[in-house]
Design goal:
A 5-stranded parallel β-sheet has the order 3-2-1-4-5. The chain is α/β, with parallel strands linked by helices. Helix 1 packs across helix 2 and helix 5 crosses helix 6. The N and C termini lie far apart (about 35 Å). It has one domain: 5'-nuclease (Rossmann fold). The longest helix has 14 residues.
Length: about 140
């Protein structure tokens, strides 16, 4: 089980020029094929829909909905009081933002071993392995 922050989903759906090639194999070769199960919080849905709604992009809104709600190997569990308490504990111990705490708490509730993000500040969380996408970019050409 792999926990997902909002950023990898955005990079995948929107084909980000720099990070899209890094996350595409994760989604297309691992998650879509069922080699890995993935989990993300409903907070992700709220985060990823903002820009498509601002820019009046119903096509992107639908692509996010399709991936987050219908993908067979990606779980979008509801937030529970237990998840909220775990998020509060993570915030208290690591000083992370509330959305990040909910993302991580959700991943922990589903026994994720890894959490994919592009937020270097989340490396201080020790309960699961934090994978920062920036670390997986190919070296820059001189």
């Amino acid at each position: 089980m792999v926990g997902l922050d909002a950023s990898p989903l955005i990079y995948f759906i929107e084909g980000h020029g720099r990070y899209g090639p890094v996350v595409r194999p994760l989604f297309e070769e691992r998650i879509e094929q069922g080699l890995n199960e993935a989990v993300t919080s409903v907070v992700t849905l709220a985060e990823v829909l903002v820009q498509p709604l601002v820019t009046a992009r119903p096509d992107l809104v639908q692509r996010y909905r399709d991936l987050l709600i219908q993908a067979p190997h990606l779980v979008l569990p509801d937030l529970t009081p237990q998840t909220a308490e775990r998020a509060a504990d993570l915030r208290a111990r690591y000083g992370i933002r509330l959305p990040d705490a909910f993302q991580l708490a959700t991943a922990l509730e589903r026994n994720a071993s890894h959490f994919v993000t592009n937020d270097i500040r989340l490396r201080r969380v020790t309960e699961l392995r934090i994978l920062v996408l920036e670390d997986y970019l190919p070296p820059a050409n001189p």
